[in-house]
């Protein structure tokens, strides 16, 4: 895993400044502390930058990017991992291709030569974000992995096209403007983003499974996008006759074991994150069976028994002989590291568990590890979240009686009461645009759409006027592909919408890659191995949620691996205790509010309305406010703090100067960090 960046000028004769490329690499040195590389394609106005985290091929020279093919046709900068690379390398070698490194990145050069870039993509298995310049076609292509595990952003300036692994990489370029968009800020305050957008004006995200293709015609850049992969839940009319449960259980076991075996491949030790959920526990169990020595497992422990999962994680660690390390975190620590976390997430957060995750990744890094396996994706594939199960109960159980559905819904609401007002909306909500597209408004969006009622009063009057007629539900609906929703089962629809919205920007983003890579930690999610996913989307809905049991097929496949208490346990969302649950946490939150939500700070940023902010803080403090409402207000306050911190980090500060200073601190410059390319060997 690494960090990439680069530019494509409108005018090919305009030279690329290598010092800017080095600064773009330096500002993301947390993603790649092991070295900097840059490459300018002469007389083409193209430049690439790379900050390296060495995982495969630890040789500091062989693995240095960017890579250029021997004939000079392709130049590539790559962040991520291509799994199954040894088999692919052996196959290509047998066909006469010569490899000069052991790096998985070099695969792409030869696969592109053999199949063309687009033809090479089906052969890539893993998580990645990369850029390829095709000299003959004068074409730059950005590619993001199928789920968006690895981030990748782009923007257009008067000078040309700028891209990078993080938004701050784009902001390190002097030509890129740094300002919030009115709609982007609106979504920061309600949590759910419109796919492909960010908080900032003109800054776009490459979407999961997408190519962004930039072609130069004279001195004009043409940008288009193309979806190369999507989930493709089957149409109801195309679903095959259901087979016996045992068939699906055996197939899932086969795909899952293979995914873990592939993700254990590295030239450095691989550890596991371990919570009290079956996702991380099953990964740990299979990983322990694959290795000769005990697996290292890292767990977060909270100081609130309602949210702490250490006891059950310890039971799993003992069952498989893992070497467990529990990191105890209290609420005060979380707020102390809030601002630092926002520097890395580059978007608002609603719960401080992402801060806990960043502290965990720091501890793992300090223990000498730089690769961990994680359980992300299981809840998405097997309907583990209560929101998904609620939609199944309400809209996907036609064969059940109204009484049976009512009983299941009452059980679900009661067993997830801690998350009322957060994961589950206080009251049902129907958004016209989403309901028109999907047939219902997914429960995963209802809580955040409910929060939108607060947003207008929280915005600065100018921004309030700019969003007066704005509909967040309509904006989200317009970004979804109707052909992937029409004719699907209700649970498939709910899962698809969650994966395209919350999963990419939240679970994989600010709770995943961004806080892991903040400490140079590569996280690998076996559940997102795409052959496993392509099997999972075809599972009958009743194999995902049956009776009172979530993730039924996974539980059955791993039943003999799990302790009885864990096998029988319902999904529990990994979250930190909200601030109102403890006086010390509330004090720590108020310290931040006094700094970032003061009248002086709000006036300086020009984003928020001081009266609206004070009303939220007052209501949150009131003993008369119901707990479910305080949970929602806690999330809104976290959003308010976040956007003020984002303004301080990315708008108020001179980011290009900050990037140059960081390069100087690291000793990275265009003279010492020589231009490097594979073809020069």
TrEMBL record:
Residues involved in L-glutamine binding: 104
Record EC number: 6.3.5.4
Coiled coil segments of this chain: none
GO molecular function, one term: ATP binding
Transmembrane segments: none
Record pathway: Amino-acid biosynthesis; L-asparagine biosynthesis; L-asparagine from L-aspartate (L-Gln route): step 1/1
Residues holding ATP: 300
Gene Ontology cellular component terms for the protein in this record: cytosol
Keywords for this protein: Amino-acid biosynthesis, Asparagine biosynthesis, ATP-binding, Glutamine amidotransferase, Nucleotide-binding
InterPro entries to which the protein is assigned, alphabetical: Asn_synth_AEB, Asn_synthase, ASN_synthetase/amidase, AsnB_N, GATase_2_dom, Ntn_hydrolases_N, Rossmann-like_a/b/a_fold
NCBIfam families associated with the record: asn_synth_AEB
Family as reported in the entry's similarity comment: Belongs to the asparagine synthetase family.
PANTHER family named in the record: ASPARAGINE SYNTHETASE (PTHR43284:SF1), ASPARAGINE SYNTHETASE (GLUTAMINE-HYDROLYZING) (PTHR43284)
The protein's name in its UniProt record: asparagine synthase (glutamine-hydrolyzing)
Organism per entry: Aliterella atlantica CENA595
High-level lineage: Bacteria, Bacillati, Cyanobacteriota, Cyanophyceae, Chroococcidiopsidales
């Amino acid at each position: 895993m690494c960090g990439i960046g680069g530019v494509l000028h409108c005018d090919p004769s305009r030279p690329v400044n290598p010092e800017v490329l080095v600064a773009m690499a330096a500002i993301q040195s947390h993603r790649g502390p092991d070295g900097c590389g840059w490459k300018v394609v002469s007389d083409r106005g193209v430049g690439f930058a790379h900050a390296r985290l060495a995982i495969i091929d630890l040789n500091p020279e062989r693995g240095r990017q960017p890579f250029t093919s021997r004939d000079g046709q392709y130049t590539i900068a790559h962040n991520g991992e291509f799994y199954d690379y040894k088999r692919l390398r052996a196959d290509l070698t047998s066909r006469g291709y010569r490899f000069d490194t052991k790096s998985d990145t070099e695969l792409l050069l030869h696969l592109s030569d053999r199949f063309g870039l687009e033809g090479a993509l089906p052969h890539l298995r893993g998580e990645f974000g990369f850029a390829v310049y095709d000299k003959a076609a004068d074409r730059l292509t950005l590619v993001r992995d199928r789920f968006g595990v690895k981030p990748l952003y782009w923007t257009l300036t008067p000078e040309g096209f700028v891209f990078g692994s993080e938004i701050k990489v784009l902001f390190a370029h002097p030509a890129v403007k740094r300002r919030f968009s009115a709609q982007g800020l609106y979504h920061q305050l309600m949590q759910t983003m419109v796919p492909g957008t960010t908080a900032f004006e003109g800054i776009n995200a490459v979407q999961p499974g997408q190519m962004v293709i930039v072609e130069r015609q004279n001195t004009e850049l043409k940008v288009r996008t193309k979806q190369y992969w999507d989930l493709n839940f089957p149409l109801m009319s195309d679903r095959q006759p259901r087979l016996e449960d045992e068939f699906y259980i055996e197939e899932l076991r086969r795909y899952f074991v293979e995914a873990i075996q592939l993700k254990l491949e590295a030239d450095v030790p691989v550890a596991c994150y371990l919570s009290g959920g079956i996702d991380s526990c099953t990964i740990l169990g299979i990983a322990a069976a694959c290795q000769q020595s005990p697996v290292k497992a890292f767990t977060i422990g909270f100081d609130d028994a309602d949210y702490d999962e250490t006891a059950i994680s310890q039971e799993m660690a003992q069952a498989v002989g893992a070497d467990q390390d529990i990191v105890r975190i209290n609420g005060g620590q979380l707020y102390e590291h809030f601002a630092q976390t926002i520097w890395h997430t580059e978007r608002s957060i609603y719960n401080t568990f992402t801060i806990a995750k960043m502290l965990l990744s720091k501890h793992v890094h300090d223990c000498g590890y730089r690769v961990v396996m994680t359980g992300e994706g299981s809840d998405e594939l097997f309907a583990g979240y209560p929101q998904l199960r609620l939609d199944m109960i309400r809209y996907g159980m036609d064969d059940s009686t109204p009484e049976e559905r009512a009983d299941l819904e009452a059980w679900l609401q009661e067993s997830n009461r801690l998350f009322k007002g957060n994961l589950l909306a206080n009251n049902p909500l129907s958004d016209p645009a989403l309901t028109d597209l999907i047939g219902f408004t997914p429960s995963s969006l209802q809580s955040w759409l409910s929060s939108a009622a607060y947003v207008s009063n929280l915005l600065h009057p100018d921004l309030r006027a700019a969003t007066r007629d704005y509909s967040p539900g309509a904006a989200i609906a317009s970004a979804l592909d109707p052909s992937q929703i029409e004719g699907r089962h209700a649970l498939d629809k709910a899962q698809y919408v969650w994966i395209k919205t919350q999963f990419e920007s939240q679970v994989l983003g600010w709770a995943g890659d961004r806080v892991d890579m903040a400490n140079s930690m590569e996280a690998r999610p076996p559940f997102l191995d795409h052959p496993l996913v392509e099997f999972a989307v075809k599972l009958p809905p009743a194999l995902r949620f049956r009776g009172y049991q979530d993730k039924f097929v996974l539980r059955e496949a791993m039943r003999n691996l799990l302790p009885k208490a864990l096998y029988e346990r319902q999904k529990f969302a990994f979250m930190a205790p909200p601030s109102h649950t403890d006086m010390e946490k509330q004090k720590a939150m108020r310290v931040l509010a006094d700094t970032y939500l003061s009248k002086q700070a709000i006036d300086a940023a020009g984003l928020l309305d001081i009266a609206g902010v004070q009303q939220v803080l007052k209501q949150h403090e009131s003993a008369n406010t119901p707990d479910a409402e305080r949970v929602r207000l806690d999330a809104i306050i976290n959003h308010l703090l976040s956007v003020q911190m984002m303004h301080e980090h990315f708008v108020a500060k001179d980011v290009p100067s900050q990037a140059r200073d960081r390069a100087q601190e690291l000793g990275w410059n265009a003279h010492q960090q020589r231009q490097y390319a594979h073809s020069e060997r």
